[in-house]
Specification:
elongated, mainly alpha, 6 helices, 140 residues
Length: 140
């Protein structure tokens, strides 16, 4: 029974770290988006903003899963690694977004608020997922 309780607490701790990282990712995407992200997605049903946010959250999830898997059952290492690699991943994703925005025509943030689907948002979303995968591979 003690093992079950310990495993549940460890799972809770990893869950909290993951949710906090995803909340930070949400804030970063919100900062890159003109207007409020919650209004864009939940009120205006903007698919561009939803796609970019979803890719960011998935990228963070991939990083956290890799950090947990690489921790070799060392809970402290897993939690610290998840947080550290997650923050690093978010910073790299933000940098990649800014770089892509700088080298392509138009402003990606403005494309996110367009009610019509924008192919550039798909490119940016894949950059988020690829970044998460690259960092995950580097962890293991």
């Amino acid at each position: 029974m003690q093992t079950l309780v310990t495993d549940l607490l460890v799972t809770l701790a990893y869950g909290v770290v993951g949710v906090v990282l995803m909340a930070i990712g949400y804030v970063l995407v919100d900062m890159a988006t003109p207007g409020r992200l919650d209004e864009l997605i939940w009120t205006r049903r903007n698919r561009n903003a939803a796609l970019l946010l979803a890719s960011n959250l998935a990228g963070v999830g991939v990083i956290v899963v890799a950090a947990i898997a690489a921790s070799d059952d060392d809970v402290v290492l897993g939690l610290v690694g998840s947080a550290a690699y997650g923050i690093l991943g978010l910073l790299i994703m933000a940098g990649a977004f800014l770089l892509l925005d700088a080298v392509t025509p138009g402003r990606l943030g403005e494309l996110l608020v367009d009610p019509e689907p924008q192919p550039a948002v798909w490119v940016s979303a894949v950059v988020h997922l690829a970044t998460g995968a690259i960092i995950a591979a580097a962890i293991s």
